[in-house]
Amino acid sequence: MSKDPGTTRKLICQNKKARFRFDIVESMEAGLVLTGTEVKSLRLGRANLSDAYAKIRKGEVWLYNANISPYPFAYHDNHDPLRPRKLLFHKSEIKRLIGKIEEKGFTLIPLKLYFSQSHVKAEMALAKGRNVVDRRHELKKRDASRELDRQKKNYKVSC
């Protein structure tokens, strides 16, 4: 876990593959409804967001496939690691999300989990999935820019 500079945010985990697999259009912050053992496990940094996504069910937003490992020191009443967790959004935000997800084909994915003071927050993103060709194109652009930076560095050294 690392602290973001200048804020009271303490990063728990982040979804590194999300920016590669999706085009991020907009991001927003949401609270999470958690049990005590989940919070204790998050304080140990035991979470994974790689396959997580969110859906809207009956006017509420739920986070699915976010893996929070069981707390190792819990004697009983430990949580299910993959249980759906409720995300806390305002009603107006939920209505706006419903419109964008249903009409324009966006999906809602988590980018980060972090502690904001004593609360666990999730940075959620409205995203549009990339196809394989777009991903390959992105990799080629990244490799080309990396090679160009190497050539610039070697040119400066040889002069």
CATH superfamily: Small protein B
Name given to the CATH architecture: Beta Barrel
Give the H and E element order.
EEHEHEEEEEHEEH
Cα end-to-end separation: 43 Å
Q: Using the CA coordinates, give the radius of gyration.
A: 19 Å
* Share in β-strands: 35-45%
**pLDDT averaged residue by residue:** 85
Low-confidence stretches: none
Itemize the secondary structure elements and their pairings:
Elements lengths: L1 E2 L5 E6 L3 H4 E11 L3 H8 L3 E2 L4 E5 L2 E5 L2 E2 L16 E4 L2 H14 L2 E10 L2 E11 L2 H27 L1
Antiparallel strand pairs: 1-2, 2-9, 3-8, 3-10, 4-7, 5-6, 6-8, 9-10
Q: How is this structure best described in words?
A:
The structure is a single chain. The protein has 159 residues and is α+β, with helices and mostly antiparallel strands. It has one domain: Beta Barrel (Small Protein B, Chain: A). The protein is built from 4 helices and 10 strands. The strands form 2 sheets. Strands 1-2-9-10-3-8-6-5 form an 8-stranded antiparallel sheet. A two-stranded antiparallel sheet has the order 4-7. Strand 5 and strand 6 form a beta hairpin. The longest helix is centred in the last third of the chain and has 27 residues. The radius of gyration is 19 Å and the shape is globular. The model has no long low-confidence stretch (mean pLDDT 85).
Summarize the entry for a quick read.
With 159 residues, this protein is of the alpha+beta class. It has four helices and ten strands.
